[in-house]
């Protein structure tokens, strides 16, 4: 199945900037000590999906901090001078090149001994036999079209949202586990055991998605953020992404008509939005097209609004939302 991107002209351009963070924030699991001041293996992670891997694989042997605060949109992250300095104190940096340009630059210029780029541990291309994003003219989106914030998800047009595909996330986990074993050999046995356990859980999740979406009425789902290309490709779905629209802009009458026609033709019932971005666009389109709205979480961060406390719980919620939207209950 093709994963399609439809571009909507924005009614107004909205520049979204983020204030520089004053300090590294501990990731969701709790109170990490300052980087470099612990007797553990210190890991700085770029944002939640990387921090989660580090925690799961490292267990009690690691001290994990995240460059992205809970609730902050990762694409908007700007690295502070203090964070840049703290990168020099950590044992390892785990990031996903292409998602956060300021992180890529800071880690690239740092003296961190162990730099783990998750983008090198799996393919950022969609699964074989499926298409890439397409724009309104039917051309493959190979040039990194910007998202609703005006940011490109990737410098080379590849989709960095690989953690939403459990199989690809498992490949990354295996690579991170090997990197930890090499960088901290004293605890290699535990890292290997933890990695195998995590990969097993991710494989189970993959199987659950395949089974749960097998008998569905439609393949098409609509989302305000083109983040689900890998997930769509893995399970034979088609993502209709409402991209290039400023968060507060109203969709054009022509676009609403087009989307309504698509919904009728493909049996679409739902417009999905995400927790870290305004739901105004989704609700406007859904109201005018006679559709419902629901959350499909790209898992770029965990907050009080998340439908779950960790990666697995939120992915389970995503599966239930897709089952309802696609008629696979």
Give the SSE string: EEEHEHEHEHHEHEHEHEH
Overall pLDDT score: 81
Alpha carbon gyration radius: 20 Å
Q: Which percent range fits the helix content?
A: 25-40%
- How far apart, in Å, are the first and last alpha carbons? 21 Å
> Could you tell me the strand content as a percent range?
5-15%
- Count of distinct strands: 10
The side-by-side strand order for the widest beta sheet comes to 1-8-7-9-10
Spatial shape: globular
Q: What does the oligomeric state look like here?
A: single chain
Number of helices: 9
The major beta sheet can be summarized as: 5 strands, parallel
* Helix/strand class: alpha/beta
Low-confidence stretches: 1-33, 129-155, 244-248
Written account of the structure:
By secondary structure, the protein is of the alpha/beta class. It is 35% helix and 13% strand. It contains 9 helices and 10 strands. It has helices at residues 48-58, 81-87, 101-109, 166-183, 188-212, 229-234, 253-266, 280-289, 311-326; strands spanning 4-7, 25-26, 41-45, 62-66, 92-95, 114-117, 220-223, 238-243, 270-273, 292-295. The strands form 2 sheets. Strands 1-8-7-9-10 form a 5-stranded parallel β-sheet, with helices on both faces. The chain has a 5-stranded mixed β-sheet with strand order 2-4-3-5-6, sandwiched between helices. Strand 3 (41-45), helix 1 and strand 4 (62-66) form a beta-alpha-beta unit. Helix 4 (166-183) runs antiparallel to helix 5. The two termini are 21 Å apart. The model is unreliable at 1-33, 129-155 and 244-248 (pLDDT under 50).
């Amino acid at each position: 199945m093709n994963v399609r991107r439809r571009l909507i002209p924005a009614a107004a351009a909205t520049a979204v900037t983020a204030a520089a963070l004053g300090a590294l924030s501990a990731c969701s699991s709790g109170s990490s000590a300052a980087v470099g001041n612990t007797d553990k293996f210190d890991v700085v992670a770029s944002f939640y999906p990387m921090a989660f891997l580090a925690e799961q694989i490292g267990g009690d042997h690691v001290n994990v901090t995240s460059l992205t605060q809970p609730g902050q949109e990762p694409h908007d992250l700007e690295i502070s001078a203090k964070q840049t300095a703290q990168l020099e104190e950590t044992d390892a940096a785990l990031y996903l090149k292409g998602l956060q340009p300021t992180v890529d630059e800071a880690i690239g210029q740092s003296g961190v001994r162990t730099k783990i780029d998750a983008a090198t541990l799996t393919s950022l291309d969609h699964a074989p036999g499926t298409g890439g994003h397409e724009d309104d003219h039917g051309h493959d989106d190979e040039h990194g079209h910007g998202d609703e914030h005006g940011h490109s998800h990737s410098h080379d047009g590849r989709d960095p949202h690989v953690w939403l595909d459990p199989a690809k996330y498992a490949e990354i986990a295996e690579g991170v586990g090997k990197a930890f074993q090499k960088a901290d050999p004293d605890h290699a046995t535990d890292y290997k055991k933890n990695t195998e356990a995590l990969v097993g859980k991710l494989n189970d999740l993959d199987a659950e998605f395949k089974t749960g979406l097998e008998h569905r009425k439609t393949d098409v789902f609509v989302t305000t953020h083109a983040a689900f290309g890998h997930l769509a490709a893995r399970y034979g779905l088609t993502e209709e992404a409402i991209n290039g629209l400023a968060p507060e802009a109203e969709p054009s009458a022509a676009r609403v008509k087009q989307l309504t026609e698509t919904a009728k033709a493909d049996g679409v019932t739902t417009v999905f939005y995400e927790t870290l971005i305004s739901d105004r666009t989704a609700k406007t389109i859904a109201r005018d097209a006679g559709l419902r709205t629901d959350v499909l979480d790209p898992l770029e961060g965990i907050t009080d609004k998340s439908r779950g406390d960790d990666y697995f719980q939120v992915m389970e919620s995503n599966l239930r939302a897709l089952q309802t939207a696609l008629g696979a209950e």
